[in-house]
Design goal:
By secondary structure, the protein is of the alpha/beta class. Helix content is 51%, strand content 17%. The longest helix has 14 residues.
């Protein structure tokens, strides 16, 4: 399973990139707003750090605007993927951008039907938000299993990006569910390194080495 970092903070991305585990990155308007910077500048900088797909989201509400935004964002770097919300106008934009060879990531996916529609329109990636599904009392991991099953049934090549990852167990679960990618906040990636038995083991080795 590929690992993307889910943030627009370039300092955090540089720090995560030093581990050599990043395959890409995802951003959204909320993450960009936190940085108080221009979207294009942030995306360009991230592309210089991570050699992999970098999702940049459009903010237009009609498909014509999404298409124009997408074309401009795609000019920033060959690795830019246009992130588009799951809605009727968004799917029109995905269909048209796909015809022009521009990669897309359909975000805010909460059902198999949405994932199927996005794939049929030509989406390169879909981003089901499993954490938000959990928040309303449903099982977000089952959503990943179900999308994987449907895609495999019909040899659909659209890749699944498990998003809204809240904790390390989510990462383990989506990997078992067959997600192609998990996009993970830096704070959760840091927790993935940790295990109390590892800490105890290191401490014991160091104590023994001093004897």
């Amino acid at each position: 399973m590929k690992i993307f970092v889910d943030t627009a903070n370039v300092n955090d991305i540089r720090r995560m990139a030093e581990f050599g585990i990043l395959d890409g990155a995802t951003t959204n308007p909320s993450l960009i707003a936190k940085e108080g910077r221009n979207l294009a500048d942030v995306i360009e900088e991230i592309c210089g750090i991570v050699d992999g797909p970098i999702s940049a989201e459009v903010i237009s509400e009609d498909h014509e605007g999404m298409i124009e935004e997408g074309k401009e964002l795609a000019k920033i770097h060959k690795n830019v993927v246009i992130k588009i919300p799951m809605c009727e106008e968004g799917i029109k934009a995905v269909y048209n951008l796909n015809k022009e060879g521009i990669k897309t990531n359909v975000t805010l996916i909460f059902s198999v039907n949405q994932a199927l529609i996005a794939a049929k329109a030509g989406a390169t990636y879909v981003s089901p938000f499993l954490g938000r599904v959990d928040d309303i009392g449903y099982d977000g991991i089952n959503l990943i299993y179900d999308i994987r099953e449907v895609y495999d049934n019909f040899n659909i090549n659209t890749e699944i990006i498990s998003a809204s990852i809240r904790h390390p167990m989510h990462v383990q679960q989506v990997a078992k569910a067959g997600s192609d990618i998990a996009t993970i906040p830096p704070s959760v990636i840091e927790k993935m390194f940790k295990h109390p038995l590892t800490d105890i083991g290191i401490e014991k080795f160091l104590e023994d080495a001093k004897k």
